[in-house]
From TrEMBL:
Annotated signal sequence range: none
Residues passing through the membrane, by range: 9-26, 32-50, 62-82, 102-122, 129-148, 168-189, 201-230, 236-254, 283-302, 322-341, 353-370, 376-393
UniProt keyword terms in alphabetical order: Membrane, Transmembrane, Transmembrane helix
One Pfam entry name: Wzy_C
UniProt name for this protein: O-antigen ligase-related domain-containing protein
UniProt-annotated location(s): Membrane
GO cellular component, one term: membrane
Keyword Transmembrane annotated: yes
Domain O-antigen ligase-related per the UniProt entry, residue ranges: 202-334
Membrane topology: Multi-pass membrane protein
Lineage: Bacteria, Pseudomonadati, Pseudomonadota, Alphaproteobacteria, Hyphomicrobiales
Keyword set includes Membrane: yes
Length: 424
């Protein structure tokens, strides 16, 4: 009973941390709000520490988390002291301070992951109300911004809000799209269908207004993929099908308008960033330039004709940027994680809630090929919780594929799945 009570307290603490991250963690640079979130993550981790055991967390997440920390720590070792001439750099990273910040961020995400894995599967699923509150806070802020077409700057933030509580509308769009699989799960498997349908419509409308080409495209693809991936053999009413087709038709009109407004400059610029980053990877392939030092190292590989008036702070491709900063070890970690993700998604596919988490993780991974959403604490911690759902050791639940029949049990109507009879 005492463990269950502590688990509920930890669940509430983790939910509040996720809510706080969604409101004050929308920037991509280290600031006071980020330091507060790291401090809060330590508090939540300390609260959950008595229940964090290897049997609960699982061997694969624990080993992978240790490998992440070691790959960052190796760049902070004073290996330059081994140079007999003493002329080499002291550390493998070009900036000890920036790499230390990356280490803290990685440790923060791993703490959230381990806390989620230490909770029961029911308690992890009970985090969704906190996440929905975070979603609605961002939807309301985004609606206010897009209706007035102004960038809002509050005293609580040291950056203007360009999309919801995010500094970047693309990252704001990623945050919204991540919820689509879970809303589709609620529509197909839970009783709160009206809430889920209304929220899904609000998410899609705000996505269209967010002026993010990647977000609009992902929103359409993920909505269709979530419906197909979660529907299984369930029978939908004619009204549901017509309503879905109408929603997709309206969204396609908005998507076409976004395409017509989008210029080719963005794609050309991203290609240029990628080519320049690849030059840096070839030069520092083995150990990288140091985590968190991309902005300082990138100009070394820029051609004179590539110089623009904009400051290049990221490669707009998280995979290339990580390899540029971390070298071959970062590349190995990326490949290892992708392999573990595909394996776990396959093993957990019978559980529709874990399936929704796998689709949401895939959204972030896909968007990371053209942007850097995981650099914000809001999406980084969301990514950690989603992995906590997918890799959770709790019993996988296989939802019935057949139709259900309402049955009265003790005066209460209960939906009981109808058995499928095989013939022949």
């Amino acid at each position: 009973m005492q463990n269950e009570s502590r688990g509920r307290v930890v669940k509430i603490a983790l939910g509040l941390l996720m809510l706080g991250a969604a409101i004050v963690g929308g920037d991509t640079v280290s600031n006071f709000n980020g330091d507060l979130l790291i401090f809060a993550a330590f508090l939540v981790f300390g609260l959950a520490l008595p229940d964090i055991q290897l049997t609960r967390v699982g061997t694969l997440p624990a080993v992978f988390g240790i490998l992440i920390l070691l790959c960052v720590l190796v760049q902070m070792l004073p290996l330059g002291m081994l140079d007999s001439d003493g002329l080499g750099p002291m550390f493998l990273t070009s900036s000890f301070i920036e790499t230390s910040r990356v280490l803290l961020s990685a440790f923060c995400a791993l703490m959230v992951l381990f806390v989620a894995l230490s909770l029961s599967y029911t308690q992890v699923r009970a985090l969704m109300p906190f996440l929905y509150v975070a979603l609605y806070c961002n939807l309301l802020m985004g609606a206010v911004q897009f209706s007035s077409r102004t960038r809002i700057r509050e005293g609580l933030f040291d950056y203007p809000l360009a999309g919801g509580f995010f500094v970047n509308p693309n990252h704001f769009s990623t945050f919204l799209v991540v919820f689509i699989p879970f809303l589709m799960f609620s529509i197909l498997y839970e009783k709160r269908k009206r809430f889920a349908v209304g929220t899904l419509c609000a998410v899609l409308l705000v996505l269209l207004a967010a002026n993010s080409m990647a977000g609009v495209g992902l929103g359409l693809v993920v909505t269709v993929a979530s419906a197909l991936g979660l529907m299984e053999r369930r029978h939908l009413s004619l009204y549901a099908v017509l309503g879905g087709l109408l929603l997709v038709a309206v969204y396609l009109v908005g998507f076409q308008n976004q395409v017509s407004m989008e210029s080719s400059v963005s794609a050309t610029t991203r290609y240029q960033f990628a080519m320049t980053t690849l030059e840096g990877i070839r030069a520092y392939f083995w150990m990288g330039v140091g985590y968190g030092t991309f902005a300082d190292a990138y100009p070394m590989f820029m051609r004179p004709e590539d110089i623009q008036r904009w400051y290049v702070n990221h490669a707009h491709n998280d995979y290339l940027e990580l390899v540029f900063e971390g070298g071959i070890l970062a590349l190995m970690l990326i490949v290892l994680y992708l392999a573990l993700f595909v394996r776990q998604a396959w093993l957990s596919w019978s559980d529709p809630f874990k399936r929704s988490a796998a689709i949401a993780i895939a959204i972030i991974l896909i968007h990371s090929t053209v942007d850097y959403p995981i650099r914000t604490f809001a999406i980084l911690l969301m990514f950690a919780v989603l992995n906590g759902v997918l890799f959770h050791q709790g019993k996988r639940v296989k939802m019935p594929r057949s139709r259900t029949l309402p049955v009265l049990i003790d005066g209460q109507e209960v939906s009981v799945p109808m058995a499928r009879v095989r013939t022949g």
